[in-house]
Design brief:
It contains no helices and 30 strands. By secondary structure, it is mainly β. The strands form nine sheets. It has a four-stranded antiparallel β-sheet, with no helix packed on it. It has a four-stranded antiparallel β-sheet with strand order 5-6-7-8, with no helix packed on it. Strand 6 and strand 7 form a beta hairpin. It is globular and about 55 Å long. The two termini are about 40 Å apart.
């Protein structure tokens, strides 16, 4: 998964095009490179990442490219290119052809603006958004029957783009409508049916930045806490959205770009990679919900901003380009196993919390002393309003935001023996304590019991169960 979403500590920002886009399966990548001539003209360049050593192939045509041309690598080795031509966009496929470059024109899209979406799962389809004043058109640029096809016209102005499953059926978009931004989900197998996915409060602006289909972990940005903050939740869970203090940098920007795959039903163990831009340079950041701290590591020289991939084998791939090595990939080993469980901790209110093991060591990486963000108490979200689910599920009545933090019940709560991290939690919901004590470095598993859980497979008629966490949690034990 590749994404570039600049997260400023003081102002909201939206994703912009990464310096290098990686294909859905990590086999190829593409970027616009510059010639060393006096004009510094641009040309497309395809990277091959699936071999023992990465190498680049120029895909330059008879004329230099404009710097606003967009590229999308496909898993078959071809590269989709989007060029602005007058009042429309020309869509073509580029591929190596002997010593030169072959080009196949797919068609044109009449639109004032057109933005490529991240690579779709499967790696053979290409989608784009054409936002207008009051509507946004979703286009299928490659993979249709006859050239670019209009999929659906969505009310509001849509940006972003995050895939929620491995089949390429569910696409999440950030839609601005009536002055507020909420995340909606588009079901591409049901004619583009659209439903609300993320709404923390009625008045908040809520955006989805990254999603991992295996664990269900979601990384969001919202101003529900009073100002823009990075937070995390679990798809389909009733747990609240959490806003870790360690993901709130005092200065600079924090950019999430990759999530660790393979953590099945274990969102607390799923690691997220960040790019940290600060006054003292660029750093690699790694964070897990169970650790509740952001670790910093040296970034490779020439790292292409916003580009990176976590493999199923546990390696974090960071592409870079320098004068000495114009096509290189730094491979950093990251453990894939779940966080080791320990005994549950009893709180003052007779609620058991799940305690995870200490910080996970990262082979191949050297942590920078003094740069690791110290753990701080997480701020829980205000109640989330339920959106209308897709399919035949009846809508849930929205929960009204409370004016004061919810107090724990005075009656004793039946203790729940904490399961291992990533296992099924015994309660399947409820209030997550967060006192900021040293013994409370993680939250309980957000996964419900197997008997009450929604199926993880996608049926013929999709049932979007619950949107992202819709409950209130106190910020401190009372």
């Amino acid at each position: 998964m590749t994404i570039c979403a600049t997260e400023d500590a003081t102002a909201p920002a939206r994703p912009h095009r990464a310096a290098l886009t990686i294909a859905a399966d990590g086999s190829y990548a593409a970027r616009l490179a510059r010639h060393d001539d006096a004009a510094g003209s641009w040309f497309p360049e395809r990277w091959t990442l699936s071999g023992p050593e990465p190498y680049a192939v120029p895909l330059q045509g008879t004329q230099p490219e404009e710097p606003d041309s967009a590229l999308l690598p496909l898993t078959d080795g071809r590269v989709l290119i989007l060029r602005r031509v007058a009042d429309r966009f020309a869509v073509s496929l580029l591929y190596p052809a002997g010593p030169g470059t072959g080009e196949l024109l797919l068609g044109a899209v009449p639109a004032p603006a057109l933005t490529l979406l991240p690579p779709a799962p499967g790696g053979t389809l290409g989608y784009a958004l054409a936002p207008e004043a009051r509507t946004t058109t979703l286009w299928l640029l490659h993979g249709g029957a006859d050239g670019p096809e209009r999929v659906i016209r969505i009310p509001g102005r849509c940006t972003g783009g995050v895939w929620l499953d491995r089949s390429g059926r569910l696409l999440a978009l950030d839609r601005e409508l009536d002055g507020r931004t909420k995340t909606v989900v588009v079901d591409l197998e049901r004619g583009g049916e659209t439903g609300l996915l993320l709404q923390i409060t009625d008045e908040s602006n809520d955006r989805l930045l990254l999603a991992d289909p295996d664990s269900g972990l979601l990384l969001v940005r919202s101003d529900a806490p009073g100002h823009d903050r990075l937070g995390w939740g679990v798809l389909g869970s009733s747990r609240p959205v959490r806003f870790p203090e360690c993901l709130r940098p005092a200065e600079g920007t924090l950019t999430p770009f990759a999530m660790q795959p393979g953590q099945m039903l274990a969102p607390e163990s799923c690691a997220v990679a960040f790019r940290r831009e600060a006054a003292n340079g660029t750093w690699l950041g790694v964070w897990r919900p169970s650790e509740r701290q952001l670790r910093h590591f040296p970034a490779p020289e020439g790292w292409l901003a916003g580009a990176g991939l976590w493999t199923a084998g546990g390696e974090l791939l960071l592409p870079y380009a320098t004068e000495a090595e114009p096509c290189g990939v730094a491979r950093m080993a990251v453990p894939l196993g779940p966080v080791e469980p320990v005994e549950a901790v009893r709180s003052a209110r007779r609620v058991r919390l799940v305690e995870t093991a200490g910080p996970v060591e990262m082979p191949g990486l050297t942590e920078i002393p003094g740069l690791t963000e110290t753990p701080g108490p997480e701020e829980a979200s205000r109640p989330v309003g339920q959106g209308r689910p897709l399919g035949s599920v009846e809508p849930v009545r929205p929960v009204r935001p409370a004016d004061v933090p919810v107090r724990l019940p005075d009656v004793p709560v039946q203790p729940v023996q904490g399961p291992p991290s990533g296992a099924v939690a015994g309660s399947g919901g409820g209030i997550v304590l967060d006192t900021g004590d040293a013994d409370n470095r993680s939250t309980a598993s957000a996964q419900p019991q197997p008997t009450g859980a929604e199926p993880r497979h996608l049926p013929a008629h999709l049932r979007m169960c619950r949107p992202v966490p819709l409950q209130q949690a106190p910020q401190a034990a009372r």
